[in-house]
Design brief:
Length: 394
């Protein structure tokens, strides 16, 4: 493909991603995968170039662009070499009209900027939300330790504030390494690792991962337990939860799974009432802390979504409280930087549950926020997270 044809391909790919965002369709990564499968003529170099251009355009736009072309015009305004490829030749994009309007630059839609600012995320922090994320892995302590893993890997990873983490450049194909197939590590952001470790799981405990999904945090909990104790991973999404057992087998982790029906969680967990030493609530959220990896998701959100997530988060916290024994604890984690989903949830929980208190959490990095800790790309070099640990009094 010519450079101009690659630009036109990127425009069309952004259009497909926009259509999915508007209708609540597939993620940008999945859209891109399907888009490329339908265009077998594009070689590996073409695919890399088109994807790079498309994600560059997505990151550049604040408000949702009207089209992929408008998004690419915004990039072309700052890159004369790219703008020169809008010449209409061959399969390239049509020439730029004198009155043609480019997309609006920025970090996010204006209403989201207001929400971030109200939550203490200023302009510098906001800009870092769209940086490229590195690739972090977690040494699986059921099979190795960080130093031994570092020595075994084909690339030398950097240590981070997470005790078991190694960091590599964005795009590192870590999951293709034989050490991954051997279960020596999992791909997991350092912030996620720090949030898991804050729960302080110890061997011999009975632990529930209430929103386990495909099990990234579940496997970290299993390693902390050293397979000595009981670990129950729950979720209401059958497809996601079904991916956990093979991952657990590869990691050598002993995990029980349980599929839950929304609205009937406590009924289906009646045998665990007031039994758990620790419950992790990695709650569904807006994902405002993950824009480095999924920049198009900021166009999927609406104000009503934040209220919906907040109501679900509060309900899940109340379920977790009912499952926790006296002296036990609940770890609450969201990959959101909005107080409505973070600090406000911890405060509201303590108001609803007078027999509880916020535990003192001292992670190696992060900034205190409400009852817990906030991690951000700018301050901590991680994805954005809020986490808190809430203790039930004896």
């Amino acid at each position: 493909m010519t450079p101009a044809a690659r630009v036109q391909g990127a425009i069309e790919l952004v259009d497909a991603i926009l259509a999915a965002a508007r209708t609540g369709g597939a993620s940008a990564d999945r859209v891109a995968g399907e888009w490329f499968r339908a265009r077998r003529y594009a070689g590996s170099g073409d695919r890399r170039a088109i994807r790079e251009l498309a994600w560059r355009a997505i990151r550049a736009c604040g408000e949702t662009p009207g089209s992929g072309r408008a998004a690419m015009l915004l990039v072309a305004r700052e890159d004369p070499g790219l703008g020169a490829l809008f010449d209409g030749a061959g399969h390239g994009p049509a020439p730029i009209a004198p009155d043609e309007v480019a997309a609006t630059p920025g970090v996010a839609p204006s209403w989201l900027i207001e929400e971030l600012e109200a939550s203490g995320i200023g302009a510098v922090e906001q800009a870092a939300l769209l940086d490229r994320a590195p690739l972090d892995i977690r040494a699986n302590r059921l099979r190795t330790d960080r130093d031994s893993l570092r020595a075994a890997l084909p690339l030398a990873g950097e240590s981070t504030a997470a005790a078991d983490a190694l960091r590599f450049p964005s795009g590192t194909p870590a999951e293709q390494w034989p050490e991954f197939a051997q279960g020596l590590f999992e791909v997991q952001d350092s912030g996620s690792q720090i949030a898991c470790s804050a729960l302080g799981v110890q061997p011999g405990e009975a632990v529930i991962d209430l929103c386990a999904g495909a099990g990234g945090k579940t496997l970290a909990l299993a390693a902390a337990l050293d397979n000595r104790g009981t670990l129950l991973a729950c979720d209401s999404d059958r497809a996601r939860l079904s991916r956990l057992p093979p991952r657990a087998e590869r990691a050598g982790a002993v995990v029980e799974t349980r599929l839950l029906n929304p609205g009937r969680e406590l009924e289906m967990l009646s045998d665990w009432r007031e039994r758990a030493d620790a419950v992790l609530v990695d709650a569904p959220c807006s994902g405002t802390g993950t824009w480095r990896r999924n920049p198009e998701t900021r166009w999927r959100l609406r104000p009503a979504d934040i209220a919906r997530y907040a109501a679900l988060q509060a309900r899940l916290l109340d379920i977790a409280a009912a499952l926790t024994k006296p002296g036990g604890r609940v770890g609450y984690v969201v990959c959101s930087l909005l107080d409505a989903e973070g600090a406000d949830q911890g405060t509201a929980f303590l108001a609803r549950h007078p027999g509880w208190r916020a535990a003192t959490v001292n992670p190696a990095t992060g900034i205190a926020r409400g009852t817990g800790v906030r991690l951000t790309p700018f301050h901590d070099g991680t994805d954005g997270f809020f986490f808190t640990v809430l203790e039930r009094l004896c």
